[in-house]
Amino acid sequence: MSTYLLWGVAATRRDVRIAAMPTAPYHCPGAAAVTDGRSPWPAVTAGNDGAPTVEDLPMAKDIAIDLGTANTLVYVRGKGIVFNEPTVIALNTRSHEALAVGHQAWQMIGRTPGYIVAMRPLRQGAITDFEITERLIRLILQRAGVSRLSRSRVLICVPSAITSVERRAVREAASRAGASSTYLIEQPMAAAIGAGLAIEEPVGNMVVDVGGGTSESAVVCLGGVVASKAIRSGGFDLDAAVQGYIRREFGLAVGERTAEEIKITIGSAAPYEDEAKAEVRGRELMTGMPKTVVLSPADIRDALEDHVRQIVEAAVTCLGEAPPELAQDIIVQGIHLVGGGSLLRGLANRLAGETGVPVHVVDTPLECVVLGAGRCIEAFDTVRSLFLEDD
Ligand SMILES: Nc1ncnc2c1ncn2[C@@H]1O[C@H](COP(=O)(O)OP(=O)(O)OP(=O)(O)O)[C@@H](O)[C@H]1O
Ligand SMILES: [Mg+2]
Known about the structure:
Layout: E1 3-6, H1 10-20, E2 62-67, E3 71-76, E4 80-86, E5 89-92, E6 98-101, H2 102-108, E7 116-119, E8 122-123, E9 126-127, H3 130-143, E10 153-158, H4 164-176, E11 181-186, H5 187-194, E12 205-210, E13 215-221, E14 224-231, H6 235-250, E15 252-253, H7 256-266, E16 277-284, E17 290-295, H8 297-321, H9 324-333, E18 335-338, H10 347-355, E19 359-361, H11 368-378
Parallel strand pairs: 1-16, 2-10, 10-11, 12-18, 18-19
Antiparallel strand pairs: 2-3, 3-4, 5-6, 5-7, 8-9, 12-13, 13-14, 15-16, 16-17
């Protein structure tokens, strides 16, 4: 059995994220099913070679944003994904100046002096700090080359369980950040489109999106969400469970980034082949001294179990609430697993075992939602019926 050494955090996380990124043009199994002439969906691209400059882009831009608890992605019509970074902003609390967003701000988490705070303005899929989210969106739009002058129509992906107050907050944050008009689409719908499912057909399809702060299961059919079950629990809760476990069992404090790295490196929802232990260094709570402990995949599996069970149970409930005809379709089509949490080892097998339905992890789980929304803005006027109505 080999052992991973976890001294730092940045390298592994970046490697995992980069490995999950698609190369342009975007390929997804089943994508052909929606580009066969019957479908309104044009092809999308997932160009992600860095933020474009303003000169690269046409004046009026339609853009799609997946404002996730963990990661924000921006898709510009005709261009592809131009921004894909953590939903983190670093602020100077003395001058109230925004110092960094995305990767740069993420690097600062847990490492800032007293007057700088690196924070995530979304929790469990919802905006917890309206003003800071607005600043974050404005900075991200700037990075994507969008300004008020761009007269942008902005499509934002939101959790299906979003309240009307939260919807208003998202619309307002986007319009104050520079959008000329804002539209919302439910994340599972965008995910289903991004996964290449024929959502406009009279056939049931099921998507399970395990994100950082939420896990949403939904059955879609004829362009609408027919059954859904969302829980406000996701990858961050798994990280917190790892932190809690190490604190309880070893009296050791580790940061959230280290906990996430442990989860990604050896975490799982079911036993797997070639399990390797991880050596982790943290600060002993009693003495304040550095200490190294060895963690086994079985330990981490136990730590994650409660949350994994909740995620799987939510999917089972959603499937149980689907009308029988659609449930029948899903047994044939399978469940499509998206979101970063779908990469947790063994989760797909566990879900398949407990639902009795085949489970497919999509090709690009972290980008699937924004690519689906991207398809919508590529065909904006023909797919407006998919957008959520104004309150
Ligand atoms: N290989 C992996 N194994 C397990 N978890 C992973 C892996 N890669 C990424 N994740 C987790 O995926 C989560 C981020 O996923 P994603 O970007 O889909 O969330 P989000 O869309 O920002 O959140 P939400 O949709 O809940 O608002 C993080 O918690 C991250 O730790
Ligand atoms: Mg998400």
